[in-house]
Amino acid sequence: MTAQVSFRPVPTAKPIHVLIVDDDALLRESLEQNLIDSGFTVSGFVNGQDALDHFANVAPNDNGGDLMLLDWKMPEMNGIEVLKHLRARKIDVPVVFLTVLSDQIYEEAALLGGAVDFVEKSRSFAILRRRIELILDRQAQAHASDVNGDSEANGDIEIGVLKLSPGSSRALWQDARVDLTLTEFKIVHHLATRAGTDIRYREIYDLVHGEGFVAGAGDDGYRSNVRTFIKRIRQKFRDVDDSFDAIATYTGFGYRWVADGTAL
Question: Which of 106, 211, 232, 249 has the fewest CB neighbours in a 10 Å radius?
Answer without folding.
Answer: 211
